[in-house]
């Protein structure tokens, strides 16, 4: 979670906003082709592998069938990228070739397999080494603004090599037979998730694509800085999703009450973390962006505030997708949910961009998530999503109170203005965190009480 912030924070200070924006703009275009090569296996593959939990033979058959499908789609994606993108004069051709390696990397990505068998330690291992290698090489090799392509190469090649390493491990665990290589066995059911994955990618990347196409590459750099900070928090919020989805898929066919308990606990934890992090990002936005990316990226702080507003509704929508729609096999609802997300993202970003520039794009992300949440609450009445949101109201109340108190103190007290940036940032975090936890303590929140009990037991063991 912290490695991308360090890596991009350093790169931002060296390459500056224009060069960083050039990479982000190119990556946003590559992403549309990479998602085609993945063919929705991030969702569908996880579910199918989870269903083979007790049969190694069936798991091997499913894995190689799905991988052969990825291999076929990857070849089509690379060909399409070469024919379409590499012929555009508006893009740096060498940079486009380097970034295009990410399509091949997506073919060998086996995260869906490890999520399906609930071997998350290997995902942790992979992510740790990718981030460590990327950060180390960036600090070592990126020295001036001319090292743009070096930084791009570090990003894509470190990911590719680790994905190949992980794929080799999976291949050794699953014996291959010629009869397993049937790429079209899962074509039609997986295509629902391809559409969903494509619309998710559009929702995530269209902001940078529009900014780079219609505004300026430097503004893509500012937006990327805000987005990197936001995504660090989002990863923490949604980290329970894949684990819960795999377990719910396994339990759904045998014990529905157990799957409901897992889903309920996941929702409360995500609400707790999302409320705390969204408030922290809003409170600390100005000092945090300057501290991480330098004074040249101060403009990113306002973008971060508006993007962070969408964290809570995004967490709820993500929970519905990962804990209700996917485990229960509701492909159509899952598909149309993300169609709506993509349409709202494109429409609101484009319209608001015309009036407010890059700030309008940031505002559009919050509006999109809020509208999407309202729609989800309406269409998910039978799953009692609204009652779960109401049950988590104490977290939203704690967020509102702690934000109000922190902003009031920062406006009225001269201490906040006189302190250097790091002590000022820490003071805001401490004040916000104290008020947030105090409100939940007074409300006797179960999660907070659980954490307090764990903390007490840890202290007793040390004594």
Describe this protein's structure:
By secondary structure, the chain is mostly helical. It has one domain. The chain is built from 20 helices and no strands. Helix 4 (93-108) runs parallel beside helix 7 and helix 9 packs antiparallel against helix 11. The radius of gyration is 22 Å and the shape is globular. Mean pLDDT is 84; it is low at 244-253.
Task: Compute the number of strand runs.
Answer: 0
Q: Distance N terminus to C terminus?
A: 32 Å
The Rg value, from CA coordinates, equals 22 Å
Indicate the mean pLDDT: 84
- Our estimate of the beta-strand percent is under 5%
Shape descriptor reads globular
Helix content: over 70%
Count up the helices: 20
- Category by helix and strand content: mainly alpha
Query: What is the succession of H and E elements?
Result: HHHHHHHHHHHHHHHHHHHH
- Summarize the biggest pleated sheet: none
Q: How many domain regions?
A: 1
The stretches of 5 or more residues where confidence is low (pLDDT under 50) are 244-253
